[in-house]
């Protein structure tokens, strides 16, 4: 797959390939008919073949004249949406990669429909192209393949869509930034490594982002007891990573929090059988927040102030490990009885939420976490679970989810569930003794660490942060869920 993709500033005169899009009526659009004349109707003839249906994401390559033509189906015109356009973009770039095209012209004139404006379609198409080009081969033995094309340059026959194409590709790049970190194995992606990546991101932002890392004595001084306890069994020390975007004249502040458990053994409540496999993805909430900060600095540049907190720890085992029956008292005064050391993510998130409320004083908070297996049972991998105490914030997130394809579904967070979390020996316990309402238990726990009047949304991405098999435009592995969702929410904040 291509290692780099860029959008040319103008239409190409002699590209190696043309990408032509067609609906399920199998009729060439007007802009494509002009291409068909020099090749004596080869494109129209290809669409008449029995194996060509025009379904979304279906692709066919036609060799005619000096160029090659990639025909990609759009499905029904009345059903065209951003999700479909991402699948179309994925199919297009995979076909271009198969034929080894270094340059390609996207035929986009007249693409818009009543349901899908041209700019939105172009952005989603480019997102699909960028997302499908992701290939995590960092740890494979490198073998040079002579003639293999590594870079792709795309041009459009509609110059007004260049900005939309570039934006889509940039947002995919930010998502892939998060995916690459999510896929990095735990012997490399330690807490220190993740902190270094955040610092590197800040350095590369030309001063737009500021980064600081709290660790060691600073955690004790700031009373970040969740991080201290969860991380103390590991040789990789826990830390709190803070990234700040602070534009001039900002009137509002949004706090982003991402669960960053670099590896989760379950602690003394050890995971059994094959339960540890894939636990490198337990940091994907934090990686999504990092990806969102990448998009903030490089692409969307919102007018509001954004502070990102990544509580990073490794939940391991040693004679230093925290135990079931331990009681931990947080900086906001809430005491927690530990009943299960495998419910560790909420313990570090509690630190970031309570500390963030006190130090950052945000106007709204959004946290992302691979928090519960229960949300996977409830919702599968089709969407993330959304818990929100404010209708306006919920509306912002649901609107952004619809556009980005990072879908969410609201679950309740009533006082009944907060009552479930009350403990006999402390204010609350980290895991109730029953499995009832399991995904809601996690959200109910976290609610004790958010100021009551602060709009707050908790998004449980345990079912959506990674996939086991290819699902266009994503390949198996981390999806970067939440990057484009957060970017969309923040871009339109004010």
Comma- or semicolon-separated keywords:
single chain, 494 residues, alpha/beta, Aminopeptidase, nine-stranded mixed beta sheet, six-stranded mixed beta sheet, elongated
Please provide a written account of the structure:
The protein is α/β, with parallel strands linked by helices. It is 34% helix and 20% strand. It has helices at residues 30-36, 42-47, 82-99, 118-132, 162-183, 191-203, 217-221, 225-231, 284-300, 345-359, 374-379, 391-404, 415-420, 438-447, 483-491, and strands spanning 4-7, 17-22, 59-64, 67-73, 103-107, 151-156, 209-215, 239-245, 253-258, 260-264, 305-315, 327-329, 335-337, 364-369, 384-388, 408-410, 428-429, 456-460, 466-467, 477-478. Strands 7, 8, 9, 10, 11, 14, 15, 16 and 18 form a nine-stranded mixed β-sheet that branches. The chain has a six-stranded mixed β-sheet with strand order 1-6-5-2-4-3. It has a three-stranded mixed β-sheet with strand order 12-13-17, with helices on one face. β3 (59-64) and β4 form a beta hairpin. It is elongated.
Number of domains: 2
Distance between the termini: 38 Å
CATH top level label of the largest domain: Alpha Beta
Query: What is the approximate shape?
Result: elongated
Helix segment tally: 15
Query: Level of helix content?
Result: 25-40%
Biggest sheet, in brief?
Answer: 9 strands, mixed
Q: Uncertain spans, ≥5 residues at pLDDT below 50? A: none
Q: Structural class, judged by helices and strands?
A: alpha/beta
Radius of gyration of CA atoms, rounded to a whole number? 24 Å
The CATH topology of the largest domain corresponds to: Aminopeptidase
Overall mean pLDDT stands at 96
Q: How large a portion of the residues is in β-strands, by DSSP E?
A: 15-25%
User: For this structure, what is the CATH homologous superfamily of the largest domain?
Assistant: Zn peptidases
Number of strands: 20
**What is the architecture of the largest domain at the second tier of CATH?**
3-Layer(aba) Sandwich
């Amino acid at each position: 797959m291509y290692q780099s993709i860029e959008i040319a500033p103008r239409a190409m005169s002699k590209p190696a390939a043309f990408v032509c899009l067609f609906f399920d009526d199998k009729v060439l659009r007007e802009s494509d008919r002009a291409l068909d004349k020099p090749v004596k109707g080869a494109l129209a003839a290809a669409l008449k073949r029995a194996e060509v249906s025009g379904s979304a994401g279906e692709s066919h390559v036609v060799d005619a004249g000096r160029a090659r033509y990639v025909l990609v189906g759009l499905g029904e015109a009345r059903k065209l949406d951003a999700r479909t356009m991402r699948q179309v973009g994925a199919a297009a770039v995979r076909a271009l990669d198969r034929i080894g095209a270094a340059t390609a012209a996207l035929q986009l004139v007249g693409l818009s429909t009543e349901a899908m404006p041209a700019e939105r379609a172009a952005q989603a198409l480019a997102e699909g192209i960028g997302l499908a080009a992701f290939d995590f081969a960092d740890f494979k033995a490198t073998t040079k393949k002579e003639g293999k094309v590594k870079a792709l340059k795309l041009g459009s026959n509609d110059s007004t869509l260049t900005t939309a194409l570039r934006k889509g590709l940039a947002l995919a790049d930010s998502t892939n930034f998060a995916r690459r970190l999510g896929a990095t194995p735990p012997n490399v992606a330690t807490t220190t490594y993740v902190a270094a990546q955040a610092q590197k991101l800040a350095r590369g932002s030309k001063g737009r982002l500021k980064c600081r890392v709290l660790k060691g004595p600073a955690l004790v001084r700031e009373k970040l007891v969740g991080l201290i306890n969860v991380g103390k069994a590991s040789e990789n020390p826990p830390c709190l990573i803070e990234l700040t975007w602070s534009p001039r004249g900002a009137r509002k502040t949004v706090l982003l929090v991402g669960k960053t458990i670099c590896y989760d053994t379950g602690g003394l409540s050890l995971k059994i059988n094959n339960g540890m496999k894939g636990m490198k993805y337990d940091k994907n909430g934090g990686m999504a927040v990092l990806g969102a900060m990448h998009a903030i600095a490089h692409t969307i540049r919102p007018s509001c102030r954004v502070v990102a907190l990544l509580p990073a720890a490794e939940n391991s085992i040693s004679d230093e490990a925290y135990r079931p029956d331990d009681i931990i008292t947080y900086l906001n005064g809430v005491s927690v009885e530990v009943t299960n050391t495998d419910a560790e993510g909420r313990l570090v998130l509690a630190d970031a939420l309570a500390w963030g409320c006190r130090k950052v004083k945000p106007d709204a908070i959004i946290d992302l976490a691979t928090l519960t297996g229960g949300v996977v049972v409830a919702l599968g991998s089709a969407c993330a679970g959304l818990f929100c105490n404010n209708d306006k914030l919920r509306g912002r997130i649901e609107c952004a989810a619809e556009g980005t394809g990072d879908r969410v579904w609201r679950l309740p967070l009533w006082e009944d569930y907060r009552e479930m979390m009350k403990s006999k020996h402390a204010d609350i316990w980290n895991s109730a003794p029953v499995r009832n309402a399991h995904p809601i238990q996690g959200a109910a726990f976290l609610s004790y660490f958010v100021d009551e009047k602060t709009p707050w949304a908790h998004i449980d991405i345990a079912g959506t942060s990674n996939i086991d098999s290819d699902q266009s435009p994503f390949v198996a592995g981390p999806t970067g869920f939440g990057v484009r969702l957060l970017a969309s929410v923040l871009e339109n904040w004010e």
